Amino acid sequence: MTATERRHRRATVMGLGLLTAFALGPLLSAPLGAAVASRLGEYQHLGALCLAAVHALLTPVQEAFHLVLMAGLLYGTWDRTLAWRRHDSIVGSLRLQRPAPDSVLARAARAAGLTHSRVALVHGLPTPALTIGWLRPRVLLAAESLRVLSVEQLVAVLAHEGAHVRRRDPARLFAMRFVAKALFWLPLFRRLADDLAVEVEILADDEAARAIEARAKEAPGVPGSLVLAEAIVTLASAFAGQASVTPRPPRLMGVGMLAADAPDLVERRVRRLMGESVAARSHVRRSHLLTALLAVGLFWTGLFPTVHPLEAQGAHMVAHCEHLGWSPFAHLICRCDEEGDALVADARAHCEGMH
């Protein structure tokens, strides 16, 4: 199961990287065009296909790509700026209580590998525990969680959040969501980002379980994975009346015990922590793959006007491709033989005689 999950994570990260590279690849049209234009510019036909007409048809596609990309960047910046401002406003309105150095929460934090200064008790937090912050992540723990968890379970929860702190997961997910908004025309990216957000919780569970077991070697007891599974079930039951089984804090940017937006995540986490083999489920569907292929393929096709200029050094346009006033669709398939050239020349001479 561990090997399967590792392959799934690698495939997800690779998919995100390749999708981003192919989505932004058309930005390299200028250097790519300079590299191959001198060779491709000599060809004006591909069989009966008029490349000048193809050039005219695909030029708007190239311009549309830059407009869509600019709109995506503006949309992503606007969305993340609003989310950041809402987040800061809500965090500023919360009643944060710093634990005393000798309190139960502070001792549990130290046992989980966290300094007590990075943990705060919050009244009214809609999720049991949440890690927020970019440069200096910190852990917010709901007051309800402190009342329902045992000391061992509290250490397990803080160890899970400590994994998010060490990995700086809030900053990673924030950047990933920005790219997902900027590439709004690729729903596949958002689906892959959702998959990776789920795997972030799985990795934090594994790291927390290993940390608990490493610290409990001197006093063997219940395995750390079972303690964490029990803590997840306890918190899910305690917060079920406030929200769904996997609540997502509104307008709060962070990662935490039950903050991921995946309906079956709690069940998967508990079952795998108890030793069952549970397959990872992806958010990606065939329709998302098809949409991504069509969108990326269309924009990459729009590179043709750059890599194939109408006029290159040492090349000239044949007369029948100078179809001024003609629709590119009407001249897409043209006659390139001598008879076709003669017909066009006669037509041009006729028009010049009339004028």
What do these coordinates show?
The structure is a single chain. By secondary structure, the chain is of the alpha+beta class. It has two domains: 76-296, no CATH class; 318-354, no CATH class. The strands form two sheets. The chain has a five-stranded mixed β-sheet with strand order 3-4-6-5-7, with helices on both faces. It has a two-stranded antiparallel sheet with strand order 1-2. A hairpin with a 5-residue loop joins β5 and β6 (138-142). Mean pLDDT is 80; it is low at 243-249 and 312-320. It has 13 helices and seven strands. α7 (169-182) packs antiparallel against α8.
What structural keywords apply?
single chain; about 350 residues; alpha+beta; 5-stranded mixed beta sheet; two-stranded antiparallel sheet; about 5% strand
Average of the residue pLDDT scores: 80
Structural class label = alpha+beta
What is the first-to-last residue Cα distance?
A: 80 Å
Biggest beta sheet attributes = 5 strands, mixed
Please indicate the count of domains. Answer: 2
